[in-house]
Structure formats: structure tokens, C-alpha cells
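Thread title: Can someone regenerate the structure for this chain?

I was given the following input by a collaborator and told the matching C-alpha cells would be attached. They weren't. Posting the sequence so someone can regenerate them.
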Amino acid sequence: MTALSGPIMLMLSLLFSNPTSSVATNHKEVVCFVYHRFGDNRYPSTNISLADFEAHLQYLRDHGYQVLTFADAIDYLQSNQENRKTAVITIDDGYKSFYANGLPLLEKYGYPATVFINTETVGGGDYMSWFELKDAGNRKIEIGNHTHSHAYFLNLPENSRYKTFDDEIRQSQKIIKEQLGLTPTTFAYPYGELDPKMEAIIRNEGFKAAAAQNSGVISAQSNLMRCPRFPMSESYAALDKFSSKARMHALVTKEEAPTSFMMPEHRRPELTLRFVTGALQIKQLQCFIQGGECQMTITEKEGETSLKLTSAGKLTRRRTLYTVTVPDKNGQWYWYSHLWIDPSVK
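Best answer:
Regenerated them for you:
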């Protein structure tokens, strides 16, 4: 047998080394955060203090993150650029407090962000005006589509839901084009709620990506039509909580079932996941269910881990997350979450 030359051996070793790594070295990741109000303590569930927000920005600077708009982050994930720690700041709804309080802090640090707007409310009440949105767009802010009415679309009758949803997306695109001279390429689902047909509509309308509200990290293997985001409000805004999310990695699955977010009628949904074990410390894997107790079965076989997760009791919330976290042998943590939506809960 002919001996392999040094360069060929090196190439093969790079190609086949660590084949069961949980995250391959060429996998890009983006950690995405969602904010709403800034320095507006009338609404603590969606507000963040300016001190906390600036602490987040300072952390990203101190730790060498590149901060991109949502659209640019998707381009980065799909590019041949070198891997970098990457963060995205998104703002839903376009409240005035962002323009007055959040935007100046972003400018102080030189960071861009993405604002998702529902066009029906622009200029009314606490919402930014078209002048303010246009000005923000000239200051590194991407404008994304958040529908026209920000309705609970899953509560509309099925025979009209999808036409209404699609019509509103097109209406918003038209209005934004007329008012701002641009056509959004990214979308965020109102309340983070969607079903498979709504997801298909977004894909068919040509958006490059859509943001949901299941928590987690976006990876090069993610379904870009329902990208996860970590919520940031007064309950989650402490710097230790923010930094732990910023350092998180995506738990990349080879299989998940079901893929739909819709709650089954019995309200004790089962979620099945399968992923490469690699360096993950499966004995330290944790499962969390909002408002419930997690029952979990773990099977390890041939370098892969399979999980079956279910709630010990019936779920009663409109939106419930199943969340899985697990560390690797180097102490880095990985995160996966699945959102269940029960439209019957008002």
C-alpha cells in the first residue's frame, strides 16, 4: 500500500477528526435578543431600564461580539465569512421609547438593530411616527414587517385566517414601501404565534428569515422561517442573565417531532428530539416546562442521544415553552426550546 503524503494526511485528519462533535467547527451561530420598551416603567413585562440596556451593549463590546441587523445576520450565517461571536438586537412593535431612549444608546456604541413594525399603529399613541422610522432607518436601523394589525391570527377562522394573514403582510409591505422607500426582507410573527401554513406563507412571500419567540440560538442549520430569540425585559435583564444567554450555543437536532408549534387537544404534548452526543454531558441535561413538570426519557445509542419530553399534567397557558439545556465537557452550554400554542386560551 502506498504511504499517504503529509499534506493528504493533514487534510484527512481535519476532515474526519471529532466526527461526533455536537457543533461542527464550521457551524455559524447568532444569538438574537428581542426588546420592546426602553425606560418606560409603566409596562415592566415588556420594558427594560436604560441602565440594563447599556450594560448589555457594553458586555457585547467588551467581549468582542459583532452586532448585526437581523437581515445581515442571516447573510452571515449563509456566507463563507469566518466564524465570529455574533449578536442581533431586535425590537418589536416600534414604540416611541425606542426612538427616544434606546436608539441613542445604540448610536453611542455604534450598533445596528432591527425594528419590526405593525403598520396600522404607526404614529398613534406610544408608537413611532413615519418620520421617526425614516430617521431611524438612516441611523443603522433595519425595518422589518410585523403585519398590519398585529392580530391574534390563530384565533381567526381557518377558512379566512391564511388569506387575512397573507393580505396583511402584503399590505404592510406596500405601506412601508410607500412611506419609507424600502421593502422589508425580514418578518416577525405577532406574539411569536404561527402554524405551518403561516410559516409557508412567509416563505412564499420571499422573506429571507422570520423571527419567532421560542428562545434559543440561531444556527446555520436552523429553520430560518422561525428563528429563536431570547426575550429581554425587566424579568430577564440582569447582566448575569443576559451574559449567560449571549454565551449560549444552539443544540442542533437531527430530528424533532412534531415540528408544529400547535398544542394537541389533550394538552400534554410529547416532544421527541435526536442529536449527536459528541462532547455533551448528557447526565447534566436539564428540561424545563413553563407552568409544568417535565417528564423525560433519555436514550443514548451509537453516538446519538434521543429525548422524549412530556408534561406531567395538562398545560393551561396560551404559550408554553419546553426548554432543554446541556453542557459540554468544556463547560459551554447548549439550548433548545419548542413553543406550544393553545389558541383556545384567550
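Confidence is low (pLDDT under 50) at residues 1-26.
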